Amino acid sequence: MDGLILKNIHELVTCQEDRDRIRNGCIVIEDGIISAAGTMEEVYRDHGYEEIDCSKSAVLPGFIDSHTHFVFAGYRPDEFIMRQKGASYMDIMKAGGGIASTVEATRKATLDELVRLGLERADSMLGQGVTTVEGKSGYGLDKDTELKQLLAMKEIDAKHPVDVVATFLGAHSLPEDFRGNKSGYLDFLLQEVLPAVREHGLAEFVDIFCEEGVFDTSESEEYLRKAADMGFSIKIHADEIISTGGAELAARLDAFSADHLLKVSGEGIRKMSESGVTAVLLPATAFCLREDFADARRMIDSGCRVALATDFNPGSSFTNSIPLVIALASLKMDMTVDEIVRGLTINAAYALGMQEFIGSIEPGKKADISILKYPTVDFLPYNTGMNQISKVIKNGKVVYERHEIGRIY
After folding, report:
1. What is the tens place of the pLDDT at every residue in 100-130?
2. Which CATH class is domain 3-61+360-401?
3. For strand 305-308 and strand 257-260, is the pairing parallel, antiparallel, or unpaired?
4. 236, 244, 273, 379: which could join 303 in a potential S-S bond, CB 3.0 to 4.6 Å?
Protein backbone atom coordinates (compact mmCIF):
# COMPACT_ATOMS: atom_id res chain seq x y z
CA MET A 1 0.00 0.00 0.00
CA ASP A 2 1.25 3.47 -0.95
CA GLY A 3 1.21 5.85 2.01
CA LEU A 4 2.16 9.30 3.29
CA ILE A 5 1.95 10.83 6.77
CA LEU A 6 1.81 14.52 7.60
CA LYS A 7 2.88 14.74 11.23
CA ASN A 8 3.37 17.31 14.01
CA ILE A 9 1.02 19.69 12.14
CA HIS A 10 1.05 22.99 14.00
CA GLU A 11 -2.53 23.71 13.00
CA LEU A 12 -4.66 21.20 11.12
CA VAL A 13 -7.73 22.85 9.60
CA THR A 14 -10.12 20.06 8.65
CA CYS A 15 -13.16 22.15 7.55
CA GLN A 16 -15.39 19.61 9.26
CA GLU A 17 -18.46 20.98 11.01
CA ASP A 18 -17.76 19.43 14.40
CA ARG A 19 -13.97 19.64 14.55
CA ASP A 20 -12.17 22.35 12.61
CA ARG A 21 -8.79 23.55 13.98
CA ILE A 22 -6.61 20.90 15.61
CA ARG A 23 -3.25 21.57 17.28
CA ASN A 24 -0.40 19.08 16.87
CA GLY A 25 -2.28 17.29 14.15
CA CYS A 26 -1.60 14.31 11.95
CA ILE A 27 -2.97 12.99 8.65
CA VAL A 28 -2.49 9.45 7.38
CA ILE A 29 -2.92 8.97 3.63
CA GLU A 30 -3.16 5.56 1.97
CA ASP A 31 -3.50 5.03 -1.77
CA GLY A 32 -4.46 8.66 -2.31
CA ILE A 33 -7.25 8.65 0.28
CA ILE A 34 -7.23 10.07 3.80
CA SER A 35 -7.44 7.14 6.20
CA ALA A 36 -7.08 9.06 9.47
CA ALA A 37 -6.93 12.67 10.67
CA GLY A 38 -6.70 14.05 14.19
CA THR A 39 -4.10 14.77 16.84
CA MET A 40 -0.73 13.04 16.83
CA GLU A 41 -1.77 11.15 19.93
CA GLU A 42 -4.95 9.92 18.27
CA VAL A 43 -3.73 8.78 14.86
CA TYR A 44 0.06 8.65 14.55
CA ARG A 45 1.57 5.21 14.11
CA ASP A 46 4.82 4.15 12.45
CA HIS A 47 3.52 2.61 9.23
CA GLY A 48 6.83 2.79 7.44
CA TYR A 49 5.35 5.42 5.10
CA GLU A 50 7.09 8.56 3.90
CA GLU A 51 6.59 11.31 6.49
CA ILE A 52 6.52 15.10 6.20
CA ASP A 53 7.10 17.15 9.33
CA CYS A 54 4.66 20.08 9.46
CA SER A 55 5.59 21.44 12.89
CA LYS A 56 5.90 24.98 11.51
CA SER A 57 2.92 24.85 9.17
CA ALA A 58 -0.82 25.05 8.94
CA VAL A 59 -2.38 22.32 6.82
CA LEU A 60 -5.79 22.63 5.16
CA PRO A 61 -7.77 21.15 2.27
CA GLY A 62 -6.70 22.04 -1.25
CA PHE A 63 -8.49 25.12 -2.52
CA ILE A 64 -11.38 24.72 -4.96
CA ASP A 65 -11.87 27.56 -7.44
CA SER A 66 -15.55 26.97 -8.16
CA HIS A 67 -16.17 29.62 -10.84
CA THR A 68 -13.73 30.39 -13.67
CA HIS A 69 -13.62 30.89 -17.44
CA PHE A 70 -9.98 29.85 -17.72
CA VAL A 71 -9.98 28.32 -21.23
CA PHE A 72 -9.93 31.22 -23.67
CA ALA A 73 -7.74 32.97 -26.25
CA GLY A 74 -7.08 36.68 -26.59
CA TYR A 75 -6.75 39.44 -24.03
CA ARG A 76 -8.63 42.70 -23.41
CA PRO A 77 -6.40 45.25 -21.63
CA ASP A 78 -8.08 48.08 -23.55
CA GLU A 79 -11.31 47.38 -21.66
CA PHE A 80 -9.55 47.74 -18.34
CA ILE A 81 -8.45 51.22 -19.42
CA MET A 82 -12.01 52.00 -20.60
CA ARG A 83 -13.35 51.07 -17.17
CA GLN A 84 -10.75 53.31 -15.55
CA LYS A 85 -12.24 56.14 -17.61
CA GLY A 86 -15.75 55.37 -16.44
CA ALA A 87 -17.18 52.88 -18.97
CA SER A 88 -19.50 50.28 -17.46
CA TYR A 89 -19.52 46.55 -18.19
CA MET A 90 -22.64 46.94 -20.33
CA ASP A 91 -21.19 50.02 -22.10
CA ILE A 92 -18.23 47.92 -23.23
CA MET A 93 -20.49 45.11 -24.44
CA LYS A 94 -22.65 47.54 -26.45
CA ALA A 95 -19.49 48.94 -28.07
CA GLY A 96 -18.59 45.50 -29.43
CA GLY A 97 -16.15 44.57 -26.69
CA GLY A 98 -16.60 42.25 -23.77
CA ILE A 99 -17.50 38.63 -24.46
CA ALA A 100 -17.74 39.20 -28.24
CA SER A 101 -14.05 40.15 -28.39
CA THR A 102 -12.95 36.96 -26.69
CA VAL A 103 -15.34 34.91 -28.84
CA GLU A 104 -13.53 36.07 -31.96
CA ALA A 105 -10.10 35.12 -30.61
CA THR A 106 -11.26 31.80 -29.18
CA ARG A 107 -12.94 30.78 -32.43
CA LYS A 108 -9.64 31.35 -34.23
CA ALA A 109 -7.56 29.39 -31.71
CA THR A 110 -6.79 25.72 -32.29
CA LEU A 111 -7.57 23.04 -29.75
CA ASP A 112 -3.84 22.62 -29.09
CA GLU A 113 -3.48 26.35 -28.42
CA LEU A 114 -6.35 26.31 -25.92
CA VAL A 115 -4.87 23.28 -24.17
CA ARG A 116 -1.45 24.91 -23.94
CA LEU A 117 -2.92 28.12 -22.50
CA GLY A 118 -5.08 26.16 -20.09
CA LEU A 119 -2.17 24.08 -18.83
CA GLU A 120 -0.13 27.23 -18.16
CA ARG A 121 -3.02 28.70 -16.18
CA ALA A 122 -3.53 25.44 -14.28
CA ASP A 123 0.15 25.57 -13.26
CA SER A 124 -0.46 29.00 -11.77
CA MET A 125 -3.53 27.77 -9.92
CA LEU A 126 -1.73 24.75 -8.50
CA GLY A 127 1.03 26.96 -7.13
CA GLN A 128 -1.63 28.83 -5.16
CA GLY A 129 -3.02 25.68 -3.58
CA VAL A 130 -5.88 25.03 -6.02
CA THR A 131 -6.48 21.32 -6.51
CA THR A 132 -9.88 21.50 -8.27
CA VAL A 133 -11.14 24.15 -10.68
CA GLU A 134 -14.46 24.67 -12.42
CA GLY A 135 -14.14 25.92 -15.99
CA LYS A 136 -16.90 27.33 -18.18
CA SER A 137 -17.25 27.40 -21.94
CA GLY A 138 -19.09 30.38 -23.43
CA TYR A 139 -16.45 31.96 -25.63
CA GLY A 140 -17.61 30.18 -28.76
CA LEU A 141 -21.34 30.84 -29.00
CA ASP A 142 -21.35 28.30 -31.83
CA LYS A 143 -21.27 24.53 -31.79
CA ASP A 144 -17.69 23.92 -32.91
CA THR A 145 -15.99 26.39 -30.56
CA GLU A 146 -18.11 25.54 -27.53
CA LEU A 147 -17.20 21.88 -28.00
CA LYS A 148 -13.57 22.86 -28.60
CA GLN A 149 -13.42 24.66 -25.27
CA LEU A 150 -14.92 21.69 -23.47
CA LEU A 151 -12.59 19.26 -25.24
CA ALA A 152 -9.66 21.42 -24.16
CA MET A 153 -10.82 21.20 -20.54
CA LYS A 154 -11.11 17.43 -20.82
CA GLU A 155 -7.55 17.20 -22.14
CA ILE A 156 -6.23 19.57 -19.45
CA ASP A 157 -7.97 17.46 -16.80
CA ALA A 158 -6.23 14.34 -18.15
CA LYS A 159 -2.79 15.95 -18.32
CA HIS A 160 -2.64 18.13 -15.19
CA PRO A 161 -2.82 17.39 -11.44
CA VAL A 162 -5.59 19.99 -10.97
CA ASP A 163 -9.00 18.39 -11.50
CA VAL A 164 -11.18 20.28 -13.99
CA VAL A 165 -14.97 20.33 -13.62
CA ALA A 166 -16.57 21.51 -16.87
CA THR A 167 -19.65 23.73 -17.21
CA PHE A 168 -21.42 24.48 -20.49
CA LEU A 169 -22.09 28.23 -20.72
CA GLY A 170 -23.19 28.55 -24.32
CA ALA A 171 -25.85 30.95 -23.03
CA HIS A 172 -23.18 33.50 -22.11
CA SER A 173 -24.22 36.11 -24.64
CA LEU A 174 -26.15 36.39 -27.90
CA PRO A 175 -24.00 35.84 -31.01
CA GLU A 176 -24.23 38.24 -33.94
CA ASP A 177 -25.95 35.71 -36.22
CA PHE A 178 -28.83 35.37 -33.74
CA ARG A 179 -29.20 39.09 -33.01
CA GLY A 180 -32.82 39.79 -32.04
CA ASN A 181 -33.58 36.07 -31.77
CA LYS A 182 -32.78 34.92 -28.25
CA SER A 183 -35.34 32.13 -28.26
CA GLY A 184 -33.88 30.81 -31.53
CA TYR A 185 -30.37 30.80 -30.05
CA LEU A 186 -31.45 28.99 -26.88
CA ASP A 187 -33.31 26.43 -29.01
CA PHE A 188 -30.13 25.97 -31.07
CA LEU A 189 -28.14 25.25 -27.91
CA LEU A 190 -30.75 22.80 -26.65
CA GLN A 191 -31.27 20.99 -29.93
CA GLU A 192 -27.85 21.11 -31.58
CA VAL A 193 -25.12 21.66 -29.01
CA LEU A 194 -26.18 20.15 -25.68
CA PRO A 195 -26.94 16.72 -27.18
CA ALA A 196 -23.33 16.59 -28.42
CA VAL A 197 -22.05 17.75 -25.03
CA ARG A 198 -24.04 15.01 -23.34
CA GLU A 199 -23.09 12.31 -25.87
CA HIS A 200 -19.38 12.91 -25.37
CA GLY A 201 -19.56 13.56 -21.61
CA LEU A 202 -17.99 16.99 -21.91
CA ALA A 203 -19.77 18.89 -19.11
CA GLU A 204 -21.52 18.20 -15.82
CA PHE A 205 -23.24 21.56 -15.47
CA VAL A 206 -25.22 23.99 -17.60
CA ASP A 207 -25.07 27.70 -16.73
CA ILE A 208 -26.70 30.85 -18.14
CA PHE A 209 -25.99 34.58 -17.85
CA CYS A 210 -29.31 35.66 -16.35
CA GLU A 211 -29.10 39.44 -16.58
CA GLU A 212 -30.85 42.47 -18.06
CA GLY A 213 -29.85 42.79 -21.70
CA VAL A 214 -28.72 39.17 -21.88
CA PHE A 215 -31.22 36.44 -20.85
CA ASP A 216 -34.12 37.31 -18.56
CA THR A 217 -35.45 35.08 -15.79
CA SER A 218 -38.26 33.52 -17.83
CA GLU A 219 -35.91 32.70 -20.71
CA SER A 220 -33.35 31.37 -18.24
CA GLU A 221 -35.89 29.24 -16.42
CA GLU A 222 -37.22 27.58 -19.56
CA TYR A 223 -33.71 26.90 -20.85
CA LEU A 224 -32.38 25.52 -17.57
CA ARG A 225 -35.41 23.30 -16.97
CA LYS A 226 -34.93 21.73 -20.39
CA ALA A 227 -31.19 21.30 -19.72
CA ALA A 228 -32.01 19.62 -16.40
CA ASP A 229 -34.43 17.28 -18.20
CA MET A 230 -31.46 16.26 -20.36
CA GLY A 231 -29.56 15.21 -17.24
CA PHE A 232 -27.39 18.26 -16.59
CA SER A 233 -26.94 19.91 -13.20
CA ILE A 234 -27.68 23.62 -13.00
CA LYS A 235 -25.77 26.79 -12.19
CA ILE A 236 -26.80 30.43 -12.73
CA HIS A 237 -24.97 33.73 -13.22
CA ALA A 238 -27.39 35.70 -11.07
CA ASP A 239 -28.06 39.29 -9.98
CA GLU A 240 -24.68 40.70 -10.99
CA ILE A 241 -25.59 44.01 -12.63
CA ILE A 242 -29.13 44.51 -11.34
CA SER A 243 -31.52 42.46 -9.21
CA THR A 244 -33.47 40.28 -11.66
CA GLY A 245 -34.63 37.50 -9.35
CA GLY A 246 -31.81 35.20 -10.40
CA ALA A 247 -31.24 33.93 -6.87
CA GLU A 248 -34.94 33.14 -6.48
CA LEU A 249 -34.80 31.26 -9.80
CA ALA A 250 -31.79 29.27 -8.58
CA ALA A 251 -33.80 28.25 -5.53
CA ARG A 252 -36.83 27.23 -7.62
CA LEU A 253 -34.65 25.07 -9.83
CA ASP A 254 -32.62 23.52 -6.99
CA ALA A 255 -29.49 24.82 -8.70
CA PHE A 256 -26.15 23.83 -7.24
CA SER A 257 -25.12 27.47 -7.11
CA ALA A 258 -26.07 31.05 -7.85
CA ASP A 259 -22.97 33.08 -8.71
CA HIS A 260 -22.03 36.79 -8.48
CA LEU A 261 -25.05 38.08 -6.47
CA LEU A 262 -23.82 41.68 -6.16
CA LYS A 263 -27.41 42.92 -6.41
CA VAL A 264 -29.26 40.01 -4.84
CA SER A 265 -32.51 40.82 -3.05
CA GLY A 266 -33.33 39.98 0.55
CA GLU A 267 -35.93 37.54 -0.73
CA GLY A 268 -33.30 35.91 -2.93
CA ILE A 269 -31.03 35.44 0.07
CA ARG A 270 -33.88 33.90 2.07
CA LYS A 271 -34.79 31.53 -0.76
CA MET A 272 -31.18 30.40 -1.24
CA SER A 273 -30.85 29.72 2.47
CA GLU A 274 -34.06 27.68 2.56
CA SER A 275 -33.24 25.65 -0.56
CA GLY A 276 -29.55 25.01 0.12
CA VAL A 277 -28.30 26.74 -3.03
CA THR A 278 -24.64 27.69 -2.59
CA ALA A 279 -23.92 31.40 -3.06
CA VAL A 280 -20.66 31.68 -5.02
CA LEU A 281 -19.21 35.15 -4.48
CA LEU A 282 -16.56 36.64 -6.75
CA PRO A 283 -14.88 39.58 -5.00
CA ALA A 284 -12.10 40.05 -7.57
CA THR A 285 -14.75 40.80 -10.20
CA ALA A 286 -16.43 43.45 -8.06
CA PHE A 287 -13.00 44.90 -7.35
CA CYS A 288 -12.00 45.06 -11.03
CA LEU A 289 -15.38 46.49 -12.05
CA ARG A 290 -15.29 48.95 -9.13
CA GLU A 291 -18.70 47.73 -7.97
CA ASP A 292 -19.99 47.28 -4.44
CA PHE A 293 -19.08 43.87 -3.05
CA ALA A 294 -21.61 41.10 -2.48
CA ASP A 295 -23.09 41.22 1.00
CA ALA A 296 -21.42 38.08 2.31
CA ARG A 297 -22.11 38.97 5.92
CA ARG A 298 -25.86 39.19 5.38
CA MET A 299 -25.89 35.94 3.42
CA ILE A 300 -23.91 34.03 6.04
CA ASP A 301 -25.94 35.45 8.91
CA SER A 302 -29.11 34.44 7.02
CA GLY A 303 -27.94 30.85 6.84
CA CYS A 304 -26.60 30.76 3.26
CA ARG A 305 -23.73 28.52 2.35
CA VAL A 306 -21.16 30.94 0.88
CA ALA A 307 -18.33 29.92 -1.44
CA LEU A 308 -15.60 32.11 -2.93
CA ALA A 309 -14.01 31.94 -6.39
CA THR A 310 -11.81 34.03 -8.68
CA ASP A 311 -14.05 34.28 -11.79
CA PHE A 312 -10.78 34.19 -13.76
CA ASN A 313 -11.63 35.50 -17.23
CA PRO A 314 -10.08 37.86 -19.82
CA GLY A 315 -12.45 40.75 -19.20
CA SER A 316 -14.01 41.53 -15.83
CA SER A 317 -11.55 39.57 -13.66
CA PHE A 318 -8.26 38.81 -15.37
CA THR A 319 -6.78 37.24 -12.26
CA ASN A 320 -6.68 33.77 -10.74
CA SER A 321 -5.19 35.13 -7.52
CA ILE A 322 -6.48 33.23 -4.50
CA PRO A 323 -4.54 35.61 -2.18
CA LEU A 324 -6.41 38.57 -3.70
CA VAL A 325 -9.76 36.84 -3.17
CA ILE A 326 -8.82 36.15 0.46
CA ALA A 327 -7.76 39.76 1.07
CA LEU A 328 -10.93 41.19 -0.45
CA ALA A 329 -13.20 38.74 1.39
CA SER A 330 -11.55 39.73 4.67
CA LEU A 331 -11.17 43.49 4.24
CA LYS A 332 -14.16 44.31 2.02
CA MET A 333 -16.72 41.59 2.77
CA ASP A 334 -16.34 41.21 6.53
CA MET A 335 -15.73 37.45 6.39
CA THR A 336 -13.80 35.71 9.16
CA VAL A 337 -10.73 33.60 8.42
CA ASP A 338 -12.66 30.39 9.01
CA GLU A 339 -15.49 31.53 6.72
CA ILE A 340 -12.99 32.36 4.00
CA VAL A 341 -11.25 29.00 4.28
CA ARG A 342 -14.58 27.18 4.16
CA GLY A 343 -15.60 29.32 1.20
CA LEU A 344 -12.59 28.09 -0.75
CA THR A 345 -12.86 24.46 0.36
CA ILE A 346 -15.94 22.62 1.63
CA ASN A 347 -18.51 25.23 0.54
CA ALA A 348 -16.90 25.38 -2.89
CA ALA A 349 -17.14 21.59 -3.02
CA TYR A 350 -20.89 21.89 -2.40
CA ALA A 351 -21.12 24.34 -5.33
CA LEU A 352 -19.75 21.54 -7.53
CA GLY A 353 -21.68 18.70 -5.91
CA MET A 354 -18.40 17.15 -4.77
CA GLN A 355 -18.67 17.54 -1.01
CA GLU A 356 -18.59 13.77 -0.46
CA PHE A 357 -15.16 13.52 -2.07
CA ILE A 358 -13.21 16.75 -1.52
CA GLY A 359 -13.27 19.99 0.45
CA SER A 360 -12.44 18.76 3.93
CA ILE A 361 -9.82 16.62 5.64
CA GLU A 362 -11.52 13.51 6.94
CA PRO A 363 -11.30 9.75 6.41
CA GLY A 364 -12.59 8.55 3.06
CA LYS A 365 -11.98 11.77 1.14
CA LYS A 366 -9.35 12.39 -1.51
CA ALA A 367 -6.02 13.54 -0.12
CA ASP A 368 -6.07 16.99 -1.75
CA ILE A 369 -4.15 19.10 0.75
CA SER A 370 -2.22 22.35 1.00
CA ILE A 371 0.63 23.05 3.42
CA LEU A 372 1.31 26.69 4.30
CA LYS A 373 4.64 28.33 5.06
CA TYR A 374 3.15 29.79 8.26
CA PRO A 375 1.86 28.04 11.40
CA THR A 376 -1.80 29.16 11.25
CA VAL A 377 -4.38 30.03 8.61
CA ASP A 378 -4.76 33.40 10.34
CA PHE A 379 -1.78 34.40 8.19
CA LEU A 380 -3.89 34.04 5.03
CA PRO A 381 -5.49 37.52 5.32
CA TYR A 382 -2.76 38.94 7.56
CA ASN A 383 0.07 38.39 5.02
CA THR A 384 -2.12 40.41 2.69
CA GLY A 385 -2.25 39.39 -0.95
CA MET A 386 0.74 37.06 -0.68
CA ASN A 387 0.93 33.43 -1.74
CA GLN A 388 1.68 31.31 1.32
CA ILE A 389 1.59 27.84 -0.24
CA SER A 390 4.60 25.70 0.63
CA LYS A 391 3.52 22.31 -0.72
CA VAL A 392 0.47 20.91 -2.49
CA ILE A 393 -0.60 17.29 -2.24
CA LYS A 394 -2.98 15.89 -4.85
CA ASN A 395 -4.40 12.37 -4.53
CA GLY A 396 -1.79 11.68 -1.87
CA LYS A 397 1.23 12.79 -3.90
CA VAL A 398 3.30 15.96 -3.51
CA VAL A 399 2.71 17.70 -6.86
CA TYR A 400 4.00 21.18 -6.02
CA GLU A 401 6.76 22.43 -3.75
CA ARG A 402 7.72 26.05 -3.46
CA HIS A 403 11.40 26.91 -3.47
CA GLU A 404 12.26 30.31 -2.07
CA ILE A 405 14.51 32.38 -4.30
CA GLY A 406 17.76 33.22 -2.59
CA ARG A 407 18.90 36.74 -1.92
CA ILE A 408 20.82 38.37 -4.79
CA TYR A 409 23.50 40.91 -3.95
Report:
1. 889 999 999 999 999 999 999 999 999 999 9
2. mainly beta
3. unpaired
4. 273
